[in-house]
Design goal:
By secondary structure, the protein is α/β, with parallel strands linked by helices. Helices cover 44% and strands 18% of the residues. It has 17 helices and 14 strands. The structure holds pyridoxal-5'-phosphate.
Length: 389
């Protein structure tokens, strides 16, 4: 691996780092050393992979989407993360964090959630592993996602309403971090993407890289020409890209273009943001002229975040991954298209990556393209129905 980052200070070039309050430093340092030890311990890694196999349902298949392939003139393969238990890649990460919490002897976990996806994955891991769990969620999201709130409660988790700011994901992350400061001795913070202060981006990458490792072994001698994934915080994309980063395969991350990149209503932190510090880490973020963080917009809650993992910022600047955008409207079209032509309803997040492939079909002609299908779309059906698609 030519990329052996982060360095000892948690930096990926100029990005990343540990911009956290003094009171959290001991916990971050403890987590760093516990993780390093655990990840080198065969028993820990074995337990993690056993749960991914028996409980989550890994390995996830690679499916040849023949109907779309014919239409596009591209050989399109889907890495089926939508078939994981709870319906997305997020559970790869929460199982790992749950095992870490147990190893540290911490009986309680906290997490943030936007639409509730990471909240449900956290609640599921907590139930399985016998941990107490609280999930911070913006009041606006609680209102919009009543079913996921109930699902978390059913799994034995307490949902904590966050009314600061806009009452959405960014505020839930801030509140979870604040709460962690005062409970750090008994509590582990299970972050939902490759974001936050070091060592979180590293840990989440390591728990998600199973996606790309599986892809390589499933394809055997064969190599795809292009791998495409959507980017919110960046964990599913990091999971599939990281093992391929120096393989020569073209890697494309697709961000939320929202109402259009010429407007301010999008979630394209890498494509249109500037470097700054958000949630403990130096990265690309959406900000106004004064450097204040701006609200993001996307039709898909999972991409509606004004920052992105610092390692993606590094990949962008080094030219290791190309970052593109797809709009709300394009994602909706792709959502309906995959449903009709292949019998697979994708998450709206994943539909952004498919929308990019569809738009670029002419330049991809004859190539083998892998789409990381990060999640299933059952959660989005009601929202899409209300839009009359
Ligand atoms: C949360 C989510 C995303 C976005 O998060 P990343 O960290 O960028 O992967 C994408 N797809 C699905 C299905 C999600 O639930």
């Amino acid at each position: 691996m030519t990329v052996s980052l982060p360095d000892r200070r948690g930096r990926y070039g100029e990005f990343g780092g540990r911009f956290a309050p003094e009171t959290l430093m001991p916990a971050l340092l403890e987590l760093e050393s516990v993780f390093e030890e655990a990840w080198g311990d065969e028993a820990f890694v074995g337990e993690y992979h056993r749960i991914l196999a028996d409980f989550v349902g890994r390995p996830t298949p690679i499916y040849e989407a023949s109907n779309l392939s014919k239409e596009l003139g591209v050989r399109l393969l889907l890495k089926r993360e939508d078939l994981n238990h709870t319906g997305a890649h997020k559970i790869n990460n929460t199982i790992g964090h749950g095992l870490l919490a147990k190893r540290m002897g911490k009986p309680r976990i906290i997490a943030e959630t936007g639409a509730g996806q990471h909240g449900v994955a956290s609640a599921t891991a907590a139930a399985l592993l016998g941990l107490e769990c609280e999930v911070f969620m913006g009041v606006k999201d609680i209102e919009r996602q009543a079913l996921n709130v109930y699902r978390m409660e059913l799994l034995g988790t307490r949902v904590v309403p966050v009314s600061s700011g806009a009452g959405t994901l960014k505020d839930a992350v801030s509140e979870a971090m604040r709460s962690w400061v005062s409970t750090v001795n008994t509590t582990h913070y299970m972050i939902g993407s490759v974001v936050g202060p070091h060592p979180f981006p590293l840990i989440v990458r390591e728990f998600q890289k199973v996606i790309g490792e599986e892809l390589l072994s499933q394809m055997g001698e064969e190599r795809p020409d292009v791998v495409v994934a959507c980017v919110g915080g960046g964990s599913n994309a990091m999971g599939v890209f990281y093992p391929l980063i120096d393989s020569g395969i073209e890697l494309i991350g697709v961000e939320a273009g929202g109402l259009g990149t010429e407007t301010l209503a999008h979630g394209a932190s890498l494509s249109l943001g500037r470097p700054g510090v958000l949630h403990g880490s130096m990265t690309y973020m959406l900000q106004d002229e004064e450097g204040q963080v701006r609200e993001a917009h996307s039709i898909s809650a999972g991409l509606d975040y004004p920052g992105v993992g610092p390692e993606h910022a590094y990949f962008k600047d080094k030219g290791l991954v190309r970052y593109e955008t797809a709009t709300d409207a394009e994602a909706l079209d792709a959502f309906a298209w995959l449903s009709r032509k292949e019998g697979i309803i994708p998450a709206l997040e994943s539909a952004h990556a498919l929308a990019w492939i569809r738009r670029e079909a002419a330049s991809l002609a004859g190539k083998t393209v892998v789409l990381n299908l990060s999640g299933r779309g059952d959660k989005d059906v009601q929202q899409v129905a209300a839009l009359g698609v």
